Amino acid sequence: MNIWFRQHRFAFGAALATVRKAPGSFLFNVVVVAVALALPFAGVTLLENVRPLSEQLSVDPEISLFMKPGVPRENAQALAPQLQQLLAGNHAKISFVPREQALDSLKEKSGLDDVIDTLGDNPLPDSYVMKLDGFAATSSAEAARVDLLADHMRQLPGVDSVQVDSAWVKRLAAMLGVLRLALLLLAVTLGVVVIAVVFNTVRLQVLTQREEIAVSKLLGATDNFIHRPFYYTGALLGLAAGAVALGGVSLALRPLNTAVGEFARLYASDFQLSALPPLGVAGLLAISAGLGLVGALLSVQRHLARLK
Fold it and tell me: pLDDT digit string (tens) for 120-129?
């Protein structure tokens, strides 16, 4: 075990020595990779801020059922047991709204009593209002369940129309799904860019040190001994670029929160974007270091094989 640690400590020191020999080139490559990583890192930060907000959105969706004109009151009220049977197990609250009550409510909310009185007969039908509890705002399965209940209600006798207010829920879930997919595709694309940059950087190092590599082989150095410093160089490049990208995203949150705060105040909210938690930062740094390691691995395997 001590030999293993000693070998990796030597390889890490050799990688740092390579960086110190050409700090300008290393920093330039760090900036290039950081620019590629900044966009997906910013997307992850945005989604992590929106995700808990969307999960907290909980509504009691209403299903409004309207009877056909001319359906007797007794027939309309007789639908209550069937509605209770359809909504069994859904923690629903069913309210019957007579047409007279609906008209009084319309007058109270609209303030157009005189205009409504000129209509003569009451044009509104009897209706039911059903509220469902425990509805997850971003759950497409829940929205589909409500739509299925509405379809069953439309088939009941005397029912003219059924309205559901869960359409916006499905739109929100679909929008978040599209954003996640777009971010994934963007991350994969820019991840390939990072690997390509590290690949080219390590390739140049291999070509620069080919004489040292040849001498090391003559002295009996194994392939693993020769490869390790390049692996550490690629990982260091990815790690440093990830740190720079996260730092840039954190700095960008300050001016962005000014605009977000003004927009949130219009909706009586104090929502602000915050940086990723330590666990999220560690995960992104591990991913960026892993991309650098993959680029170095591919480059070393390809170009050292040619040197043989």
Answer: 677 788 899 8
Q: How far is residue 247 from each of residues 104, 257, 280, measured CA to CA in Å?
A: 59, 16, 14
> Could you give the residue range(s) of every CATH 3.30.70.3040 domain in the chain?
62-165
Furthest CA-CA distance within the chain: 106
Distance between CA 300 and CA 305 in Å, rounded?
8
- The residues, ordered by sequence, that sit 6+ positions from 158 with a Cβ below 8 Å of its Cβ are 67, 68, 71, 75, 76, 79
Distance CA 227, CA 300 (A): 7
Provide the pLDDT for residue 243.
93
What is the C-alpha end-to-end distance of the chain, expressed in Å?
30
Cα–Cα distance, 157 to 67 (Å, whole number) = 9
State the fold for domain 62-165.
Alpha-Beta Plaits (3.30.70)
Contacts of 110 (CB under 8 A, 6+ apart): 116
